[in-house]
Amino acid sequence: MHRRHNPEKSMNLSVERLTEAAAMGRTEVVRELLESGTDPNAVNRFGRRAIQVMMMGSVRVAELLLQHGAEPNTPDLTTLTLPVHDAAREGFLDTLILLHRAGARLDVKDALGRLPLDLAEEQGHHLVVTYLREVVKGGMKSTTRDVE
């Protein structure tokens, strides 16, 4: 019996592979999948996008996703957190800066009413707090989508 190729199933598998690779910080796999046309904004079987599950400490994964059009302001449907909330809470300043420069909003509250700044303060991430306070003082206007 000859099986027919199912493009939808292939796409679903590539989205699953992309979110898994992003979560594990596997830069080369992420690059290959994006370059082969996997949509960085497609959702996996759990309703999550690669930018939402990416390893926050992997700036290169974040950079690749953003370069291929990942939306940095995608909220988690339950917690309303954005990727910048996750980066701030975990103390990943480089990832936070990259997301912000790509257009991520820093003035959006999560479901508990917390800003990324609040999360960084709660966790004692002083460098992140300093950056966020400086950006707030400057009016949060460095959102230029300049990831190349």
UniProtKB/TrEMBL annotation:
Belongs to the CDKN2 cyclin-dependent kinase inhibitor family. Keywords: ANK repeat, Cell cycle, Repeat. This is Uncharacterized protein. It comes from the Eukaryota. The lineage of its organism: Eukaryota, Metazoa, Chordata, Craniata, Vertebrata. It comes from Vombatus ursinus. GO terms for biological process: negative regulation of cell population proliferation; regulation of G1/S transition of mitotic cell cycle. InterPro entries: Ank_Repeat/CDKN_Inhibitor, Ankyrin_rpt, Ankyrin_rpt-contain_sf. ANK repeats lie at residues 18-45. One of its GO terms (cellular component) is nucleus. GO terms for molecular function: cyclin-dependent protein serine/threonine kinase inhibitor activity; protein kinase binding. The gene is LOC114025930.
